[in-house]
Batch of 3 targets.
Target 1
Amino acid sequence: MVNVAVVGPGLVGQALIQQLLAHEVPGLALPLVGVINSRRMLTHSAPSGHLQPLASPGQWAKQLADAEAADLKAFVTRLAATPGPSVIVDCTSSLAIAELYPAWLAQGLHVVTPNKKGFSSQYELYAAIRAQTGPRRPLVYHESTVGAGLPVLNTLYDLVRTGDEIVRIEGVFSGTLSYLFNTFSSAGGNDAQAFSAIVAGAKALGYTEPDPRDDLNGLDVARKVVILARVAGLALSLEDLDVENIVPAALRTVATADEFMAQLPASDDHFTELNREAAAAGTVLRYVGTVDPRGRSSVKLVRYPFDHPFAGLKGSDNIIAFTTKRFASPLIIQGAGAGAAVTAFGIFADLIKVAERTA
Amino acid sequence: MVNVAVVGPGLVGQALIQQLLAHEVPGLALPLVGVINSRRMLTHSAPSGHLQPLASPGQWAKQLADAEAADLKAFVTRLAATPGPSVIVDCTSSLAIAELYPAWLAQGLHVVTPNKKGFSSQYELYAAIRAQTGPRRPLVYHESTVGAGLPVLNTLYDLVRTGDEIVRIEGVFSGTLSYLFNTFSSAGGNDAQAFSAIVAGAKALGYTEPDPRDDLNGLDVARKVVILARVAGLALSLEDLDVENIVPAALRTVATADEFMAQLPASDDHFTELNREAAAAGTVLRYVGTVDPRGRSSVKLVRYPFDHPFAGLKGSDNIIAFTTKRFASPLIIQGAGAGAAVTAFGIFADLIKVAERTA
């Protein structure tokens, strides 16, 4: 049994709660004991003050809207005072929340999260989180911070903890950039569409951030590379990475997303030329993050031969290749690396691991 | 801490012991307390009779050769009587050994194994093993029974335990058959070699069983499909599968492997014709196992379009695709699915999970 409290029930948190309530895990109880957003918090306390499972968990959203004012510190104190193991699921993308993990862990709470900030911001925060965890100490699981529910980090943790040597980690870690380049540059002949038209189409479908420059600048991919590098044992931070910002230089200071989109077609020739050169060399373009333990880790546009697994990528799938001493032919994991249901799946699987390890 | 005892230290068991001794897992102790093969057994007991870590574990092979006569029952009794959690690693491929798991588990021992027999033979044995395990009861991990160290079963367990719906599991699960068909039938144009020549080459390189019919009959793949199906919740056994034995009918009763190899060229036209038809349809041939929860599960030659991930498979890699309700675009795992080092890695990672859950 492990008590579950959710911070920041947005799309992912809602999907998680839905999965938790819809499915009972044989032999393990994962009662939902609290939900908090930036305005309200919902808990259900016994006279002792200890938290109880929410009385009507299926009604949590409705009840939260009418619940008491949010006080994260009080919420965490109630959870920590409740007997039995408890886990906080941070479904925000907030650095300020991630900065609280060391204190939460020090209070004996476990942490499961898809929030990248705690693992990819200043190294001191990462080290402080690690210092509070260990085989017998509170647990931290964050599978969904890279590739959503794809078994990327659990696999990397297994490789590292069994003493395998990481030679290289390479992958397409952004569903958005996967979609853009899979559409723009494919082994089956390049699409007639201009790059700006593909970006506009993706934006219309909701595949990009509101300002697509937040995808094209590579920062989201860079955070994932930092997480992978740190799990692989490298004391690396964002500033140590070579990140290729593919937003054309002239468009980086344009004020609004709309103006950016309006001016992007002026750069189409640039992208078309890159693509033409790649195709002439029998390759496609992919926007790839690489962890290189012996050299510079990077985020950049890379060419791959038509028969490379990255060249065959479809839709908005992520793909990651681990080359290690034992896996000389890379261990590859591929599939949907974004979306509420698969992200929630990764969190749910992490929660089961916490429940098993505290059973 | 968990005491580790290895049964059947062949190539995989030796690789495992080498990995265990070469690498200390931070915060977790995995002392090697016993090794047994069919002739000898090596343990090191305190005056109390309790097992101690082997005195010079690096010398285990030499010491085993001079150790006492093997008595598996006594070996297990000593292990079960030793305080603290203990795990037996069955590195044999013996059904008779696998039939002992329920009794071992009933004695409180954990089991980690790459031996497929306990999970793919009569359903009653599988059910008896499952009946002895659970969140708080002794643990069974068998990641390396399918795809060696590739994170196949842990991923499937996560999908199932979080309530995802398995729509289809499909994969190339034999390194040998992967190699044969990747060489014979590729998107880049088919090799000029006859099928029999490719089999002969693979045999010479040690890629096949001593009698290649033990690969071509599909039984090894069928066992893996049964394991996947059972983990997915289906009460399926070998006899429920449609298995395509690609050994030509006339060659199934030929007495020796040499005679089989001598007569195989007479079937080359048959395979060449299959391959030609596949290529004409823009496809390649792959020998694939499929779990279909709503229909018949099977093991057979299947055609895949040139741009399908299975068509791009190289060398002797395994590949597996999980299609689920949440992962509508399949979750794919690919890489070396055979070999002592990667099989041992899968076992080692399982041992760490046991150690963490009993910490």
Target 2
Amino acid sequence: MAEAAARRRGRGGGGAARRAERSAVRIETAKYIERNIPNFEVLTEEALDIIEANAETVLEEIGVNFVDNPKALERWREAGADVDGERVRLPKGLARKLCATAPKEFTQHARNPEKSVVIGGRNLVLAPVYGPPFVRDAEGGRRYATMEDFSKFVKLGYMSKWLHHSGGTVCEPTDVPVNKRHLDMLHAHMTLSDKPFMGSVTDPSRARDSVEMCEVLFGKEFVQDNTVMTSLININSPMTFDDVMMGALEVYAASNQGCIISPFIVGGAMAPVSVAGTLTQVLAEVMAGIAYSQLIRHGAPVIFGAFVSSIDMNSGAPTFGTPEASMVTYGAGQLARRLGLPFRSAGSFCGSKLPDAQAAYETANSLNMGLLAGVNFMLHSCGWLEGGLVADFEKFVMDADQLGVLHGLAKGVPVDEESQAMDAIREVGPGGHYLGCAHTQANFKSAFWKSELLDYKPFETWEEEGGRDTRMLASERVEFLLANYQQPTLDPAIAEALLAYVADKKASMPDAFM
Amino acid sequence: MAEAAARRRGRGGGGAARRAERSAVRIETAKYIERNIPNFEVLTEEALDIIEANAETVLEEIGVNFVDNPKALERWREAGADVDGERVRLPKGLARKLCATAPKEFTQHARNPEKSVVIGGRNLVLAPVYGPPFVRDAEGGRRYATMEDFSKFVKLGYMSKWLHHSGGTVCEPTDVPVNKRHLDMLHAHMTLSDKPFMGSVTDPSRARDSVEMCEVLFGKEFVQDNTVMTSLININSPMTFDDVMMGALEVYAASNQGCIISPFIVGGAMAPVSVAGTLTQVLAEVMAGIAYSQLIRHGAPVIFGAFVSSIDMNSGAPTFGTPEASMVTYGAGQLARRLGLPFRSAGSFCGSKLPDAQAAYETANSLNMGLLAGVNFMLHSCGWLEGGLVADFEKFVMDADQLGVLHGLAKGVPVDEESQAMDAIREVGPGGHYLGCAHTQANFKSAFWKSELLDYKPFETWEEEGGRDTRMLASERVEFLLANYQQPTLDPAIAEALLAYVADKKASMPDAFM
């Protein structure tokens, strides 16, 4: 689509027109959000004490399973856990003690140092959708994702002002063999963007490949001393840690790379139907996972994750943007802060099949909740559709635009003399208007968040221009952005070495599609 | 549309089919929201002190205008204000002292006592869109509103579970003369619904008619002792109180009826471009308006209102769901609570021309903000479109469904033994699932908010059924609800007396269309 648009422009307009259009696209990335507003806290201290005590009881009495992972069981035994088959029971206090060595916050370096992010504290880092096997756009409908789609999403993420992170599996490139696609995905993040990114977790060997590719990109020494990836380690809720995910965690923790340790919960199926019960299980699972990361390496950077949706009890479908998911997220944020750990949750979650009103209600509910819950790393912050089965091109730019609202909210309310605006109120007086007054002239450019997508035109103009809905406006924006994409520069020697690494790795093994 | 649908059904199906369909519609109204969650507060005590001091300075130094209202100026003079022409300057402390006699909360009675609402405290009462001259639906497009449209909205509001209030001018019935339409509007609220409603404010005589109609509906004695209307008194920001609105306020306050005293602000035009400056002006205006209501009658029930949008500085269009409007709303809530007054703000605000993703993002941003800002009375909580120019039928039911999310959020997080769900966690254990466990069986029906509109079906089913978007689903729901509407019973003598009142009033004056 991008190529077609570029050709059309090439044929139709002159160089001046092209330049004018190009100059309208400013590739600018906002700094990660530093909140100047409080967190919204729904649980009392007493409630938090009860949930923490219950989580300790769960770890001690019930325990968690580490599956197909004798080495992990050995590590647990040495640490003082009660190991019975694959079941690991942790005496009260053990998990919390181990979690205490994880850093409160950490820096994930980008190859462009201006785009490095600090994860934790009062910060919020925004990363795009992760994992969908399908893509959708208005023109092509719903279809299996390809590497070409993947590259387009990385380009759109690179061009988004409000997105701080390039993400990981923005969609599954199903046209590349399963055992090789991580190489192409990492290569795309490393070369088409200069924002920070995530590593592969689908096999420990692929996690090692991810580290090696980072050594090519950043230099081996730099990677030894610094965190250059943050990767997603899901827990099989309830309370099961499988060998693939733990294998990837072991690689990353050992090399001091960041990991999100994240229960993946559809409430009522993988956790109790109640908020307090879900929080208890989430806390027990995360503490066990993070404790394990610290057994691998004291001080390994980790994030307290909580992916939570509720369920439609009629159909069994996961539901998003619901009050119960919000309450779990608010509560999990409080628990993470009490543990002194960075927190990951929320995103552009929705169950809708189309980027329509349902999608937007659900997404806005979740994005707002994520900001106020004190989330530090928001995966899936744009582009998610259909319960995560689909990465949608239009919704990607629609959501990415809304992320600007979060940046605006996080600023809080300055009450310095200029903001008090008493001179303006005196100047204008009863019955006047502020449009031309000195205070407005001095401040209007930065006073209001400005959408780059939404329609504010008078009705008549809007109608004359075709009465476009948000999806159509977004479709045009996708095409415009891709047509105007310009690749960030990269040292040619590094670019060549990355290509060679990928080619060598691919040549070293047969294709696998399962 | 309702009639057509009913006819279709009458022709096509038998009585049994009709009954089955009808029995699926349960007319049920949730109690007004009683928050079990904290308010979200963005301003520090120091910032609030500054804004309050500045507002007092504004009232003393600059003052407010009471236009074409010599009686009001006389009242102000007697109360100790400095009156110069139409300008009223209030010595520091005067407005605050007068505001202190207004009640912290008040009950607005509905003719069905189960639907009476308590406005103030930790409560949130939800009322529909107010004021649009146009309506829109998917079938008929955008057009001038008529009395038939008005009646349909009242019916939809009556049938909405999550709407506590029937509202006022849900749309302007432009096919009825300006000087008579308040009679038809009130008659519709009184007879097609049994929820509480609002009175006319477009002329003091129409406010008197509203009180008289209430005397017919509720009985003269009941109205003398009780509040049966809450009406909307807008301030012409900056700092101008016109005679029409003040005339209506005088009527309502004198008869102990509720009024929202509400600045109507497009930031940057009617108030400074800064949040702190806007809050200062809002506070000064509301304090002056509420102080005036208490000059009319000590103890008259009033609400601290704040209608605030931001502005697109390119086009001058008002914008909605923006971070700046949210910050003003959060701050205004804090100021209202410090004054000890009920607070009105937020709503289904959006600038979009269609009930699409833009509309839903903007609306969800505003609804969520309203709940967390501690709003007590939310006018416009469903059906608003195109900056308030349009009342949209599909969006009315879409938004009304989302109001269920607010009800769910307000519940907070119970942490009693049943909610802790420790037995469920023990029963299921690592690797199991909760779908069939005893705790889930006992709690799943009430555990999750359930949409009556949104789509959660599997992709294949959804596609087979036509791949409908939210607007199409909503369009079907509007038709279904109107076809199944059943009028609440009313004493025939009262019904007849109301009709006679309206007929007599209409006969007493010539039609006016301006």
Target 3
Amino acid sequence: MAKLTSRSDDYSKWYNELVVKADLAENSGVRGCMVIKPYGYAIWEKMRDEMDKKFKETGHVNAYFPLFVPKSLFEAEEKNAEGFAKECAVVTHYRLKNDPDNPGKLIVDPEAKLEEELIVRPTSEAIIWSTYKNWIQSYRDLPILINQWANVVRWEMRTRLFLRTAEFLWQEGHTAHATKDEAVEEAEKMNKVYADFAENFMAMPVIQGLKTPSERFAGADETYCIEALMQDGKALQAGTSHFLGQNFAKAFDVKFTNKEGKIEHAWATSWGTSTRLMGALIMTHSDDLGLVLPPTLAPIQVVIVPIFKGDEQLAEISKVALEIQAKLKAKGISVKFDNDTHNKPGWKFAEYELKGVPVRIAMGPRDLENKSVEIARRDNLTKETVSIEGLDSHIENLLKTIQTDLYQKALNFRKENITNVDSYEEFKKVLEEKGGFIYAHWDGTAEEEEQIKNETKATIRCIPLDEDVEEGISLISGKPSARRVLFAKAY
Amino acid sequence: MAKLTSRSDDYSKWYNELVVKADLAENSGVRGCMVIKPYGYAIWEKMRDEMDKKFKETGHVNAYFPLFVPKSLFEAEEKNAEGFAKECAVVTHYRLKNDPDNPGKLIVDPEAKLEEELIVRPTSEAIIWSTYKNWIQSYRDLPILINQWANVVRWEMRTRLFLRTAEFLWQEGHTAHATKDEAVEEAEKMNKVYADFAENFMAMPVIQGLKTPSERFAGADETYCIEALMQDGKALQAGTSHFLGQNFAKAFDVKFTNKEGKIEHAWATSWGTSTRLMGALIMTHSDDLGLVLPPTLAPIQVVIVPIFKGDEQLAEISKVALEIQAKLKAKGISVKFDNDTHNKPGWKFAEYELKGVPVRIAMGPRDLENKSVEIARRDNLTKETVSIEGLDSHIENLLKTIQTDLYQKALNFRKENITNVDSYEEFKKVLEEKGGFIYAHWDGTAEEEEQIKNETKATIRCIPLDEDVEEGISLISGKPSARRVLFAKAY
């Protein structure tokens, strides 16, 4: 197996190679669409299940809405339509027919043209709010707290596996509320749920904040987000939660009678995370040997590799290995005993390093004699010899330690790569020489934001929600600024 | 709440009303596409989770393939294309633009026409086998045992909620094997997995069999199926498993080197079940009061309804109700305590009957005095008074009993509605007067099958796989027949 390109040689190439070589995903025969391979999908399933649990714990239920949005519905909320119409898949016909000129070939049947074109959903606010219209009459029908797991399509021109694909998998929450306060609270709550998931499950520190008006979701009054820092110093938006005001309720005429008997438009939120998180996961933890996975997300948490010559040794090692496997499984730890005789131990070591298996147990005849095994951590590549007695508890604790260490390592990296700057010159210098997150002052105008973006490619990732407020003078205009905002180049 | 139309008055209307009134699904603004509402989706989630567990237990893994199939890939397997091209959604453009003549309106941008049209997948053999081509080189790459949970689109002209919709949710297994025997075994195994799921989880008896050549999946060499009998005497195909031979391997040039070093085409299966199972579930168990759910699939297994006057009584009842709820939850039973003060107990009783909650506990002040509650079973509408002491174990057992009873009831219904007939005249008479499954002899030709279908609308549901073989003379041609086959009118 050829080695991965190293991160320092070509970060982008390293990422692309790793996604394919670790069997996570690959490009398909359909432009911009990926195939998520079983190993990658198993990780996504763990993300999905954990998020789904958190959504249900916070009172949400799942439902399913149509894949297609009729053009007229799509048009109803103008900003949303404007934001998504430029990159969407349009269904215009509902039948193919045999090509009379080319036997065995099919052509679009011109007689099967749809009266109204259908858009493959790029996001579901339009189709969902046109449905909510029939569900909401009274304040007693509110709140509606629905989430959907679905595929969506955005016709991106430049695509990259997981990070930006024409089709991707995601969840989209769509809630309706009787009051503005309640909707704002929901949007904030779900952004916190995302932050909690990212930090405690993905071991990926994030900064919670608000988008500037120009970076908001098309149709939102306010967009909350979580922003993570990748190893190459670029930011990745890992989840967004939108307070949609009454925009969609007005566009789709969703009104209800409130407690006081008055008729009002409902208040809305939507919030989403996607398979993009897979990209974030990879770029937060992995190294030049391959994937590094936090134990929470590893399809295989522990692999046992026997070191043996001949069937007899394998049989002896297997006996002990299977006992260890059983004990670990009893503790809810997923274990693979790789007794394949085709591949050598060295090959297996490299393979499981590539796949990011958090803990490797190696066992040879000598280990058996000593009643011990060799344990290797994938995250920091350290090895230790551990007694077989009590091994299950040792590994249980080790997995927790790895989870914590991964988070701490990523947090340290972020700390080292956040710079406070106070002049535009310094800003450009840091951005070019170091990258990472930059905290700087901004005058609050779209003009300054735009100029910085055009001149440096850095955008305002968010206006952080933390309490760390410090007044200053904006980078270019020199106007007063109430607090620093977070800049970075971004995926 | 207006009563449901009764099954005897208008079965079809009863079904449509029930689906909507029990909050399972509704028609959307998109022709033929449904909205699966939270209550319906919660049931589907339980089906999905159980099937997913069974697939994993039988060695399968999940993956995800693109929504779109380029037209040229779709054409590659001729029969498959022929079978699905006539009812598919075709994406021809990738952008909308502002309509210069109508401000606020969008039109398809003629400059954004795709070079090659994309079909929204009606089934994924083509896209998946074009991918497997790159995954399969040696017998060591086989078998591939993949399942996908996805949405698919078939442009059906006449649609009905769950039973036949333009878009539906399903799972599709796609496996590749080194030998014919192994592929046949897989197709048979998965059909059995479906039968096991239907009978033991949905409490729905099914007959396992083979489709006749004219009823096979387009592109299959053999189609296995499970057939269930609905309460109106019509059959419903609840799952299919296909042995695809080497058809897709040949169409997509998927070859491998076998153990002997020879190059061969791979062998394939595919197998699927869909949200159609929701329709089967409803029509197997429900009655004129509403939904009847087997406990395994009920989002709420037990509802506690307090009977009270005034806050004080409610508070006293609540105390005991919450204790009962906690004990039931500890046993893994899902319980809702409906302490809503807006709706009367009678309204609640009707509501939970409509929703099919298997067990209702009613508690008033008198019950509290007697340290007992009233328990009502949804399936047979019987009531009993039960001591609060030991109630949790009582209910745990009761849920098991209900599950078994529902299966037995459906099995009895099927037994009563299977008729052996030996003449075409009798066949037509039974079909008209009684309906149900008919076991009759068939000469094995497409002609006789076609004639019977044209004249009676009954189709051969399957050639059963059971051992109950009895020779005879076919219905119309009078030719010898090795065994009876299963006829019925079908959904």
